[in-house]
Please model this.
Amino acid sequence: MQLDDICDKIISGQRISDQDYLVLEKTGDFYQLGFLADTIRLRKHPDKIVTYVIDRNINYTDICISACKFCAFFKTPDDKDGYLLSFAELAEKIRETQVLGGTQILLQGGLHPGQPLEYYEEMVRFIKNTGIHVHGFSPPEICHFSTLSGESVKEVLRRLIAAGLDSIPGGGAEILSDRVRNAIAPRKCTADEWIAVMEEAHAQGLRTSATMMFGHVETVEERLEHLRRLRELQDRTGGFTAFIPWPFQPGNSALTDMDKTTAFGYLRILALSRIYLDNFDNIQASWVTQGPKVAQLSLSFGANDFGSTMIEENVVAAAGVSYRLSEYEIRKLVADAGFLPEQRFMDYSLV
Model:
């Protein structure tokens, strides 16, 4: 199919095929992709509202047996500098978050080899007693808990939900292609396992987000494979609330010699994601990796969500990238771009 035909297809609201995606990726003009993504965004969100959430990333441990090549955050189990937060430390971080109007915490950590499933159940129960929403444990962590406990993923999720788990973040997806995963994260769950955790979470009533970390060893076709698997799962379950694409940050990692994705490259991928993922209502800008001005531009390339105020963020910061924005700054950036800023909850209902 020719590019003009594909553009007509998108503007009329039809789903594009994988072949259409590849044609767009190869021949689509930068501004043309932005226009098409913005058209879809306005169709889904004609009110011009841009949402954001006030929350905090709490990384409960940096001790991890996965040793992913792209990660500058983890410590090995025998590293004396590794940490595991105490419940008292968790409580103080949550208290600070709530004082700032925070409605949730994003709870993620390394794959710690020394804690049983009961520890994580106790952690969730402890956090829920504060009254905050627990958006916690990405699929690699769920698979890790399953391996350590000998319980199925289904049972692990059932027990965590009973303890108070509210939703699951989309981390650990990287690229959902096993060639890529074997190259950069061979000890992490497979692409099939990541999808299976999310499908089971949706079946048990949890809403989840989805991510894509791009710009490292993957091919265009593998990026498409990632998007296809997400779109197919969303067709089956409707359980994803949002998609967050963000470019790999090579600083201080084992892949430090790789080039960083440019803002131009990031905006192209953002637009292509909005166009292809027609069954995702929300696409999130990544100001944490791109900075405020590119994130502002993202709102014209398909994004309708500005993400989190990120009261605390450790993983991207470990790669040497440390943008910070207050709620006031987020609201001003959104308004200056011609949109209406609104605080939201995890499920995208407005506060």
In short: The longest strand covers residues 207-214. Confidence is low (pLDDT under 50) at residues 315-321. Residues 37 and 302 are 5 Å apart (CA to CA).
